[in-house]
Amino acid sequence: MGFCSVFFCLFCLSPLNASAQTSAPPAAIKIKFDAEQAATAAIQGLSNRTTNRALMPDDPVRIASISKTFVALAVMRLVEQNKLQLDADISTYLGWNLRHPDYPNVPITLRMLLSHQAGLRDEINYALPMDVRLETELKNEKAWDSGHRPGGYFTYANLNFPVIAAVMEAATGIRFDRIMKQQVFDPLRLDACFNWTLCSDKKIAAAVTLYRGNGDVARDDLRGIREACPVVPASNGGCNMARYRPGHTGSIFSPQGGLRISAVDLAKVGQVFLRNDGSFLSTQSIAIMTSAAWKYDGKNGDSADGYFCTYGLAVHILAAPGRPASCKDDPFGDGEMRFGHSGEAYALKSGLWINPARGRGTVFYRTQVPENDPSGHCIYFCE
Question: What CA–CA distances, in Å, run from 310 to 274, 314, 344?
């Protein structure tokens, strides 16, 4: 899988002294790519203000909900290996009966979870400690939408992804972070990881620190030192990974948003979708991921004020033909269909968007985004 990179800076900043750090510009980058090559159209800021290290295109950052698309890639690889089935009752993998309390006869499937139609809601903590069991937590009625049957109503919920991770672990007997390395990162030659557990020392040294709008550290102020506990710890603060039981919790590696990856490596994955040559996933699997598993009809889901109108398997589809006029899912403003995912957490906004008709895509992220920023999900770089 070739990746010819041509990088150039629009913004090249000098290192800042300590007194200037609070007024430093945010770290930001955009990469445009086609199936074979990529170029940075913009890069600015520092990966860490204490060390005055300039941001580089291959520096890893917590990319937020784009992580979900990577989880789906691993799921589809396991489906192709006959280790998972998209429409099987996930209870058969978990070893316990998972049901919506109001619809006990409706099986929950991976297809429902990946397309946010399983009935789960983010009304309970989805960053569960390593000693907490999903089986117990999902008995809480607050985790479920009481008004809609699983399989027919969309509400975006992070909680789906710890459940998916637990299913992956239960089916393979392998920790989620190691599954991701085996199924996605190693085959695509990505130096990436979930919650810093398996990234190289080189990537730890290059970690992008996330700062809030006021300049305070929000996350990942590593400065070359690995975190003592890179996962969600136990309830008592303990971090003994030898006690972790795959398939019982699913949340400690933050499958919903904890991927650390560079903009360069994100673009490589965008190129996998553009080439669609069957070398990583079959063309059928790519088609399943990027086709509508749910379409908004005005009443069959929470569209987030028109932003979510078409969704595949952990893939958001923008400006799809036939969507209602009330949809506001064209942040690029050109009416052209794209697929990918956005990310938003810890004052970062990000995107991986692919325009299949034009054979090109865009990756971007920006840190230090103010809360309630009016730019919405797109953030500055949709062009």
Answer: 20, 11, 19
